[in-house]
């Protein structure tokens, strides 16, 4: 008897049919707002090289409601990206004698301390650098 | 609780069907009846033409993997009581494999990939039996024991969209078995397995979806194994660069 195996094609909507796939694509999609945010920052640096007026205009343009909403989305994407990444660290970093849970906790604490230090440094250096004036 | 449950099975009869279509069977419901036992009931009492695989009935042989309401699961380890409230469940052959007939998936591709990674202990030189067995400490056993629990059921392949997109990807179980033997103190074959891990079809095809570990019925955690394979592949790449810089051959 001849065989006639049926091959189901993988449709574009494969990720919609399972919550695990939807979570995965949401995690991957966090790269998009972060990419746009990086472009915004690079634009700011470029404006900075063009002089104070150009830089101030760039800062003012970012006060528009659309950009504020974008920044909120970018922060949420960044937090989700970090949280899901740290969740996966124990699968990559396996240290004999240290539990995956401890490795995860260590990364969470390090991420919080690191973020606090960067934020603290920015808040301290902002007035020293002359603030918004 | 109703006294029966509707089981919709995706039937595919290669002689007469172009694609699978669902057929409904009503099976008497009891709290201790597994999906596999329900299939046996259908085969014995309702429709002897239904085709599916099974053997041990205790999650050891890995034969009875099917998609149950869209999730890859073992029929013997899934009970009808879980679906009693809804009163129905849907079965089809494992995703990402060609369907041979009804609930039987053709897992040949997976078997080929398994062979590629040489899932056995490789010895550079065979010891005479008179020298005794290859001994191992409990700590050495601990390093790979979790990964040795794999029963080759193929559920992780049905869960892997990368394997679904391109079945040349070695996939979760084969890469897990590669790590399992690489971590075994009695094995000398890790250098030989690195080529398969480093290849286009190897560990780097994995995008860490992680669903393979969620569906594994033996808690093997293939996502961990594949991604530890990426760490090993990166170290291997660095060492090879060093070797080439020193004018030696890479391995």
Automatic annotation (TrEMBL), chain A:
Protein name: Fumarate reductase subunit C
Matches recorded under Gene3D superfamilies: Fumarate reductase/succinate dehydrogenase, transmembrane subunit
Superkingdom of source: Bacteria
Source organism (scientific name): Pseudohaliea rubra DSM 19751
Pfam families cross-referenced by the UniProt entry: Fumarate_red_C
Residue ranges crossing the lipid bilayer per the database entry: 29-48, 68-88, 109-129
Annotated SUPFAM superfamilies: Fumarate reductase respiratory complex transmembrane subunits
CC per GO annotation: membrane
Keywords (A to Z) from UniProt: Cell membrane, Membrane, Transmembrane, Transmembrane helix
Highest classification ranks of the organism: Bacteria, Pseudomonadati, Pseudomonadota, Gammaproteobacteria, Cellvibrionales
UniProtKB/TrEMBL annotation, chain B:
Domain 4Fe-4S ferredoxin-type: 140-162
UniProt-recorded name of the protein: Succinate dehydrogenase iron-sulfur subunit
2Fe-2S ferredoxin-type domain boundaries: 3-97
Cofactor: [4Fe-4S] cluster; [3Fe-4S] cluster; [2Fe-2S] cluster
Enzyme class: oxidoreductase
Superkingdom classification of source: Bacteria
Cofactor binding: number and manner: Binds 1 [4Fe-4S] cluster. Binds 1 [3Fe-4S] cluster.
Pathway info: Carbohydrate metabolism; tricarboxylic acid cycle; fumarate from succinate (bacterial route): step 1/1
Organism: Pseudohaliea rubra DSM 19751
UniProt-recorded Gene Ontology molecular function terms: 2 iron, 2 sulfur cluster binding; 3 iron, 4 sulfur cluster binding; 4 iron, 4 sulfur cluster binding; electron transfer activity; metal ion binding; succinate dehydrogenase (quinone) activity
InterPro entries referenced in this protein's UniProt entry, alphabetically: 2Fe-2S_ferredoxin-like_sf, 2Fe-2S_ferredoxin-type, 2Fe2S_fd_BS, 4Fe4S_Fe-S-bd, 4Fe4S_Fe_S_CS, Beta-grasp_dom_sf, Helical_ferredxn, SDH/FRD_Iron-Sulfur
PROSITE patterns: 2FE2S_FER_1, 2FE2S_FER_2, 4FE4S_FER_1, 4FE4S_FER_2
Catalytic reactions of this protein: a quinone + succinate = fumarate + a quinol
Keyword 4Fe-4S applies: yes
Pfam annotation, one family: Fer2_3
Quaternary structure annotation from Swiss-Prot or TrEMBL: Part of an enzyme complex containing three subunits: a flavoprotein (frdA), an iron-sulfur protein (frdB), and diheme cytochrome b (frdC).
A biological process from GO: tricarboxylic acid cycle
């Amino acid at each position: 008897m001849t065989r006639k195996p049926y091959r189901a094609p993988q449709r574009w909507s494969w990720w919609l049919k399972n919550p695990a796939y939807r979570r995965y694509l949401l995690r991957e999609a966090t790269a998009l707002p972060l990419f746009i945010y990086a472009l915004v920052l690079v634009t700011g640096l470029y404006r900075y090289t063009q002089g104070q007026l150009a830089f101030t205009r760039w800062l003012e343009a970012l006060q528009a409601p659309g950009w504020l909403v974008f920044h909120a989305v970018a922060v949420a994407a960044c937090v989700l990206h970090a949280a899901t990444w740290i969740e996966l660290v124990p699968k990559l970093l396996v240290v004999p004698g240290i539990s995956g849970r401890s490795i995860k906790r260590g990364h969470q604490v390090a991420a919080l301390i690191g973020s606090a230090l960067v934020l603290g440094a920015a808040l301290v250096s902002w007035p020293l650098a002359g603030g918004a004036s | 609780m109703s006294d029966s449950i509707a089981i919709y099975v995706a039937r595919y009869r290669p002689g007469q069907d172009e694609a699978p279509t669902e057929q409904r069977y009503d099976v008497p419901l009891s709290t201790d009846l597994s999906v596999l036992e329900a299939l046996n009931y259908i085969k014995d009492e309702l429709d002897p033409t239904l085709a599916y695989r099974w053997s041990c009935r205790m999650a050891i042989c890995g034969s009875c993997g099917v998609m149950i309401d869209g999730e890859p699961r073992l029929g013997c380890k899934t009970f009808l009581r879980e679906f009693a409230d809804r009163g129905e469940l849907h079965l089809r052959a494992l995703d990402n494999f060609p369907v041979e007939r009804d609930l039987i998936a053709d897992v040949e591709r997976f078997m080929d990939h398994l062979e590629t990674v040489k899932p056995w202990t490789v010895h550079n030189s065979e010891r005479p039996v008179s020298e005794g067995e290859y001994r191992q400490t409990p700590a050495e056993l601990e390093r790979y024991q979790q990964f040795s629990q794999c029963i080759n059921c193929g559920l992780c392949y049905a869960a892997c969209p990368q394997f679904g997109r391109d079945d040349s990807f070695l996939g979760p179980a084969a890469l897990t078995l590669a790590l399992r033997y690489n971590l075994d103190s009695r094995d000398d074959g890790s250098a030989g397995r690195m080529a398969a891990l480093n290849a286009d079809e190897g560990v780097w095809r994995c995008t860490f979806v992680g669903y393979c570990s969620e569906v594994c019925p033996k808690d093997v955690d293939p996502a961990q194994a594949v991604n530890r394979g990426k760490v090993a592949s990166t170290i291997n790449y660095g060492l090879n660069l060093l070797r080439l810089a020193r004018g030696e051959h890479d391995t």
